[in-house]
Amino acid sequence: MSDSLEARLSAVRGHIAAAEAAAHRPKGSARLIAVSKTFPAEAMEPAIAAGQRLFGENRVQEAQAKWPALVAAHPDIELHLIGPLQSNKAREAVALFDAIHTVDRDKIAGALAEEITRQDKRPKLFVQVNTGLEPQKAGIAPREAAAFVERCRTEHGLAIGGLMCIPPAAEAPGPHFALLAKLAGEIGLAELSMGMSGDYETAVAFGATYVRVGGAIFGSRAYPPSA
Ligand SMILES: *Cc1c(COP(=O)(O)O)cnc(C)c1O
Fold first, then answer.
1. Which positions fall inside the Alanine racemase N-terminal domain (predicted)?
2. Considering the domain boundaries, does residue 224 fall inside one?
3. How many domains would you assign to the chain?
4. What is the mean predicted confidence (pLDDT) over 41-67?
5. Is the CB of 8 under 6 A from ligand 1?
6. Which member of 34, 112, 116, 208 lies 3.0 to 4.6 Å from 203 by CB, making a disulfide possible if both were Cys?
7. CATH of the domain at 177
8. How many other CB atoms sit within 10 Å of the CB of residue 77?
9. Contact of 100 with 123, CB cutoff 8 Å
10. 83 in ligand 1 pocket by Cβ < 6 Å?
11. Global pTM?
């Protein structure tokens, strides 16, 4: 592995561009979210200096401690919440994040809708789908995704932009990415949030519009991520 963050970031960007080209997709159609969870604010500076503007965090509190000063200094930074959201954190999440990838139940949809109206903000929203039907993992079951997206629209007044998944760690990710892409097509959603350090090139081949890459950019994490 390359020894500097700049080199690793540049390598990931190169792999994404190559995967886009191989899939006959336009350059830049798969956008890179640099997943910075567990890394301190200082570690963000070289990534920002290298032009990275999309960052992903999985905990609201950690992001609140890390990002406000950096966002004030670089207003074009986009923050994406990629971890599970509790409804009692909806206020903070809507205040801080430009996108939320983990809408997966009515209670969260309702809490987000209330805050979106109250704060007059429009974060991009993704519905998380549990493509592997793993009991310990967040996300709505694939067969319930279309009805849930419809309820988000009609009952909660939420515009859902796309779907997100985290395939089971022990399985080949391709079939899960294919399923997510098929569901999004059926529902009529344009955005697909899928692919992590180990499988983002595969995700681009299956149509990812956002890939979420942490370790391959920032190095290995000191403690494991929550599911
Ligand atoms: C941590 C995390 C990632 C990034 O994982 P890496 O393997 O470090 O690239 C992507 N998506 C979610 C939801 C995560 O929690």
1. 9-221
2. no
3. 1
4. 97
5. no
6. 208
7. 3.20.20.10
8. 17
9. yes
10. yes
11. 0.96
